[in-house]
C-alpha cells in the first residue's frame, strides 16, 4: 500500500506498507520497470531530446524499515522533499 511519494532531482522517496513475505528486490525492480515504461510512453517526445540511455533508473536503491518511527513522522519527512518534475 503506497502511503506517500515525493522526491528530489536525483531520487524519489516511497513510503509503503508491505507484507513480511514480500520479496523487496523483486518489488523494487517491478516498480522501476513499470514506472520507466509509463514515463517513457507519456513523455517520449521530451525524453528523446535529452535522454539517450535505454534505462531510466539505475540499479541501486535503499530500503529502510521504520519500526521505531510513526507513519506521520515519515510522511512529514517525505512531504518536505522537493517534488519530482
Any idea how many domains?
A: 1
Order of helices and strands: EEHHH
Q: Give Rg in angstroms.
A: 15 Å
Helix content: 40-55%
Helix/strand class: alpha+beta
As residue ranges, the low-confidence spans are none
Could you tell me the mean pLDDT? 84
Total E-strand runs: 2
Outline, from the CA principal axes? globular
Helix tally equals 3
Strand neighbour order, sheet with most strands? 1-2
What composes the largest sheet?
Answer: 2 strands, antiparallel
Which percent band covers the strand fraction?
Answer: 15-25%
Distance between the termini: 23 Å
What does this structure look like?
With 85 residues, this protein is of the alpha+beta class. The protein has one domain (2-79). The protein is built from 3 helices and 2 strands, in the order ββααα. It has helices at residues 24-42, 44-50, 71-79, and strands at residues 2-8, 11-16. It has a two-stranded antiparallel ribbon. The protein is globular, with a radius of gyration of 15 Å. The two termini are 23 Å apart.
